[in-house]
Inverse folding.
């Protein structure tokens, strides 16, 4: 199948590099100096699991110069950039194209489906600790590289989705076709949202949350509040979310931080609305108390973060 990956940061760049190295037909959508470096020198990967290497050549263009029609589109941009990619997807997608959004924000697929009624948009999430170290270079920490995706309506299930799982496996990526993507995407959100909120509130990286103390206690309370939301939304987790996510946290490089934190510290747009403020709104909608989120959201607003 022909794959398109929109966004070549830590998530999309890693998918593109692994799948290209495995011989899959993949094109990355990127821009600026990052794109120029990839076109000229390939994509350099600095990884814990596979060492340092360069994938060259690697197919990479900007949106204006992509003229193919992909079978599968992985959307790996930040939530605040979604509006920019909808017209592009509308232009290049065929009737059989499947869109798999892999974002930190919960419910992205459903929102995209409303704006792309002629193609199938699934939901999805990813477990990875990657970032752009410098233009043309991805830093990938840890051993976890897992993509979970699925349809919200079982009648939308298509054979191509099983083929995606196989292509990911052959590329060294764990692909899981979920039978309940609402639950599984919320489970991922139950890690990344509390971690982003906790890291921002205490201005710390993973190492401080791995230790006994206030940041770790706050991380636990935030997860418990999302767990209560999952129950109210009738998509209860099948695992002990606190124990599961603490195990994930404790395997991370102590220097790891969330992309939301890095964007805020750099003065860029961030996903704070979808990762923190949205949880407060969800609490109000479902009648679930989320006092820890409310405290962190209040401080973030006082700091002028929008």
């Amino acid at each position: 199948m022909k794959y398109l990956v929109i966004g070549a940061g830590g998530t999309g760049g890693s998918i593109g590099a692994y799948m290209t190295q495995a011989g899959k037909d993949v094109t990355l959508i990127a821009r600026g100096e990052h794109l120029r470096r990839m076109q000229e020198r390939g994509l350099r990967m600095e990884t814990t699991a596979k060492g340092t290497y360069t994938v060259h050549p690697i197919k990479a263009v900007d949106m204006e110069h992509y003229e193919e029609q992909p079978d599968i589109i992985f959307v790996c941009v930040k939530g605040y950039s979604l509006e920019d990619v909808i017209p592009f997807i509308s232009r290049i997608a065929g009737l059989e194209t499947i869109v798999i959004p892999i974002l930190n924000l919960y419910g992205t697929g459903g929102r995209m489906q409303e704006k792309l009624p002629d193609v199938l948009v699934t939901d999805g999430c990813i477990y990875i600790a990657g970032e752009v170290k410098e233009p043309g270079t991805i830093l990938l920490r840890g051993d976890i590289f897992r993509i979970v995706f699925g349809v919200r309506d079982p009648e939308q299930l298509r054979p191509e989705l099983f083929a995606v799982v196989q292509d990911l496996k052959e590329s060294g990526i764990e692909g899981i076709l979920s039978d309940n993507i609402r639950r599984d995407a919320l489970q991922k959100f139950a890690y990344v949202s509390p971690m982003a909120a906790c890291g921002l509130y205490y201005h710390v990286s993973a190492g401080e949350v791995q230790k006994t103390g206030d940041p770790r206690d706050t991380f636990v309370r935030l997860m418990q509040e999302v767990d209560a939301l999952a129950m109210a939304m009738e998509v209860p987790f099948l695992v002990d979310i606190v124990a599961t996510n603490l195990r994930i946290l404790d395997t991370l490089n102590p220097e790891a931080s969330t992309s939301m934190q890095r964007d805020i510290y750099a003065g860029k747009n961030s996903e704070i609305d979808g990762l923190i403020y949205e949880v407060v709104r969800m609490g109000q909608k479902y009648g679930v108390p989320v006092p820890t989120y409310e405290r962190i959201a209040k401080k973030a607003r006082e700091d002028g973060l929008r």
User: Anything to note?
Assistant: The chain has a mean pLDDT of 96. Residues 29 and 196 are 26 Å apart (CA to CA). The chain has twelve helices and eleven strands. The longest strand covers residues 137-150.
